[in-house]
Design brief:
The chain is mostly beta strands. The chain is built from 8 helices and 29 strands. It has helices at residues 2-6, 48-66, 138-142, 215-218, 220-223, 293-296, 314-327, 368-371; strands spanning 14-20, 26-32, 80-86, 91-98, 105-107, 131-132, 146-148, 154-159, 165-177, 181-195, 204-207, 226-230, 240-245, 256-259, 270-271, 273-278, 281-284, 301-303, 310-313, 332-333, 343-345, 355-359, 362-365, 372-376, 379-382, 384-387, 392-393, 401-406, 411-416. A 6-stranded mixed barrel has the order 3-4-11-5-10-9. A hairpin with a 5-residue loop joins strand 1 (14-20) and strand 2 (26-32). The chain is elongated, with a radius of gyration of 21 Å. This is Eukaryotic aspartyl protease family protein.
């Protein structure tokens, strides 16, 4: 039980090591869970339940930061660390690979104020391919809050919801992945003043969101606007995978697809949740919009690989919870930390009816073991939680699905998959 539950903590920082450089035009990398013994941030002194609670805390913290106008995501949420090499000659950096953020930045010399990191700071004076971005450029306009310095170069400012921040110079550089795959003139931020809840195992952020300045958008022509991931359980002794380009294709007779909805901000990947079924009882989403109900629910939830839990609209959650109360037999208790609303004594186990998330055109059956999780010894809680505002489909309920993002066709594809098997 403990080994399986540890594998659910995928909102945490993980290490990405590139294992396949070019595979018919695609790139595939490994994802290593932060709390596994292979992670550089693994702490054997922490108990299983301490790691679990920390992951859930990050989920709530990340949700708050995703709602921030100035900051699309809080690094404290902790997604994945991605190994990249920047400059000529290339220098290795480790950045948090973040699907909820656009701008890629790394800590740079000279540094007015930098948080502690394990790797050496990137030094732009020692690379021949570093070029500052001018204030009149499209890149500067796309970076968010920016201003000009006396040399007419663009200076960016990124403010995160938890008061973390990065200030520095916007520039273009050559980015290289293991295996020698290089991409010239990638726009990124050279951070000279950075502080907050950043881990010393990482050097900054790798933006994988949908905005124009993200790595995904900048490399769109090279990767065909496609990336995918498949999250495996750690008790399978397998790593998870994330792929870009042709190797990111998700295909097969059991694939289901749902449209990506264009909304603001364009960083996030919006889907349409039509309802949730508990067993055979379907509970439809009720829009509070004064417009037609179908229009009111378009793009009503984001899919996020960096958030552990699933946050449902409060009305829908309350009906799901009420239905589960009638169906689940067990001794109800309160969560001692007040994080979860529906909890039971774990003695004897808790068996939930099947739960299905009904996205537009795609029905996803949640993994049975991910619905109720032992959050501390003797207490099992429902991992769906209510939200008054932003709804999020979290990674805990994306387990064992190969999930592909096609930004050209504007859709997300889901294929039930044993993600412990190599792709």
């Amino acid at each position: 039980m403990s080994a399986f539950l540890c594998s659910l903590l995928l909102s945490s920082i993980c290490l990405i090591s590139l294992v396949e450089s070019i595979n018919n035009g695609g790139i595939t990398v490994d994802l290593i869970h932060r709390d596994s013994s292979r992670s550089p941030s693994y702490d054997s002194a922490n108990t299983h339940f301490q790691r679990l609670r920390s992951a859930f805390d990050r989920a709530f913290s990340r949700k708050t930061s995703l709602m921030s106008v100035d900051a699309p995501v809080s690094p404290a949420g902790g997604e994945y660390l991605m190994k990249i090499k920047i400059g000529t000659p290339p220098v290795e950096q480790l950045g948090i690979a973040d699907t909820g953020s656009d701008l890629t930045w790394t800590q740079c010399k000279p540094c007015t104020h930098c948080y502690k990191q394990n790797l050496s700071l990137f030094d732009p004076s020692k690379t021949s391919s570093y070029r500052p971005v001018s204030c009149e450029s499209d890149q500067c306009a796309s970076s968010g809050t920016a201003q000009c310095n006396s040399r007419n170069s663009c200076e960016y400012q990124v403010l995160y919801g938890d008061r973390s921040h990065s200030y520095g110079q916007l520039a273009v550089e050559t980015f290289t992945f293991d295996g020698g795959v290089s991409f010239p003139k990638v726009t990124f931020g050279c951070g000279h003043k950075n502080a907050g809840t950043f881990s010393q195992t990482g050097s900054g952020i790798v933006g994988l969101g949908g905005g124009s300045i993200s790595i995904i958008s900048q490399l769109r022509s090279s990767i065909g606007g496609k990336f995918s991931y498949c999250l495996a359980l750690l008790n399978s002794n397998a790593t998870s995978k994330i792929s870009f380009g042709r190797s990111a294709a998700v295909a097969g007779p059991k694939v289901v697809s749902t449209p990506l909805v264009k909304k603001s901000p364009d960083t996030y990947y919006y889907l349409t949740l039509e309802g949730v079924s508990v067993g055979r009882k379907r509970l439809d989403y009720r829009s509070s919009s004064t417009k037609a109900s179908s229009a009111g629910r378009e793009g009503n939830i984001i899919i996020d690989s960096g958030t552990t839990l699933t946050f449902l609209p409060s009305d829908l959650y309350n009906r799901v919870e009420a239905t589960l109360k009638k169906a689940v037999k067990g001794n109800r208790v309160s969560d001692p930390q007040g994080m979860f609303k529906l909890c039971y004594r774990s003695k004897g186990g808790v068996r939930s009816p099947p739960i299905t998330a009904h996205f537009k055109g795609a029905d996803l059956v949640l993994t049975q073991e991910s619905i109720f999780v032992e959050v501390e010894e003797g207490i099992i809680c429902l991992t769906l939680v209510p939200s008054q505002d932003l709804a999020i489909f979290g990674n805990l309920h994306q387990m064992n699905y190969h999930i592909g993002y096609d930004l050209v066709k504007r859709q997300v594809n889901f294929l039930p998959t044993d993600c412990s098997k190599s792709q």
